[in-house]
Specification:
alpha+beta; 4-stranded antiparallel beta sheet; globular; about 190 residues
Amino acid sequence: MTAWEPPRRFAYRAGSPEAAEFMAFEWLIQGRDDGTCVLRLVQSGVMGDDWETEYDALVNGWDMYLDQLAQYLRYFRGRPATPITVMGPGPGDADQVWPALTDGLGLDGPATVGDKVRLTPQGLAPIEGVVDYVAPDFLGVRADDGLYRFIRGFDGSVAVGHHLYADDVDARRTEQAWQAWLGRLFDAG
């Protein structure tokens, strides 16, 4: 953290101060007279050699994450979240990732925003929800207990980035369960 000025500003920088590769974020919040606010996000830096691909992935990712913020404010405002983040290798080809994901989640085909779904990931409890975000590299589902996000990374990896709003979430056990699910889903064997 490089700045913390509640409720107006938060800044964070990843990477060492001496490194040429870094990522810096700054969130600025400005209140308005009508009770709303403006959120400005400033991001700078790159973490790898393929900056153009990384930039494109970040632009696409921010659309999903900002939509997720709107979903939080509408459906989960004021509830603390338990973030669940798991990374795993995927097949590397987007044409193979989404069919494997939809099949692994128990969906009958491509999802559309507004679809009611029952995700049935092997080894985990079923998740009843509604598809709230779909993009070429993202699938989002909103359930009563959280926001479930499935992401295809620009390098062909697959990530799970959930925010769960239940009081009794065991983060470590939940991450292990999703990691095992990803492992079964994209097992090279």
